[in-house]
Design goal:
By secondary structure, the protein is an alpha+beta fold. The chain is built from three helices and seven strands, in the order H-E-E-E-H-E-E-E-E-H. The chain has a five-stranded mixed barrel with strand order 1-2-3-6-4. A hairpin with a 2-residue loop joins strand 6 and strand 7. It starts with a helix and ends in a 9-residue tail after the last helix.
């Protein structure tokens, strides 16, 4: 129980430090509910997960982007996963992106955390990176 409290406190601290001063708005008259800021992609984990640097390094699991796994025994899935990772790397590595972590306003961190990653969206030059991965055939919008 104590471990869980420390884990949640850690992520609340990270979120407040990282997203305390939004520096970018996605588009439209008012931004969507959540945290929005600029970040730099510093590592591509796979076709649907990247590490970004805001003030600290944060791992982001992209919403509506399900790429094949790179760590699997299925040779075909691994091949497709490595291709997705390479495509993601070419698209965003070392580039400044807009990071958006959507929330429902409740402050419930469980809704934005999964496996030590924040659930969010990246925008590169105004384009949704998840949608670009799906359009390129390297991911699907829903888990298969």
């Amino acid at each position: 129980m104590m471990h869980r409290v420390v884990f949640i406190a850690f992520w609340v601290g990270i979120a407040s430090a990282v997203f305390s001063t939004p520096t970018a708005v996605i588009s439209g008259d008012s931004p969507p509910l959540g945290w929005t800021t600029t970040a730099t992609v510093v590592n591509v984990v796979d076709g649907d997960t990247v590490d970004v640097e805001v003030r600290r390094r944060v791992r982001i699991r992209l919403l509506e982007c399900w790429a094949p796994e790179t760590r699997t025994r299925d040779a075909d899935e691994k091949r497709r996963g490595l291709a997705a990772k390479q495509h993601m790397r070419q698209m965003v590595m070392d580039k400044q992106v807009t990071l958006h972590i959507p929330t429902d306003g409740s402050g419930d961190m469980k809704q934005v955390l999964t496996l030590n990653r924040l659930l969010g969206r990246l925008y590169l030059e105004g384009n949704d990176v998840s949608a670009a991965m799906v359009a390129a055939g390297h991911a699907t919008r829903e888990k298969q």
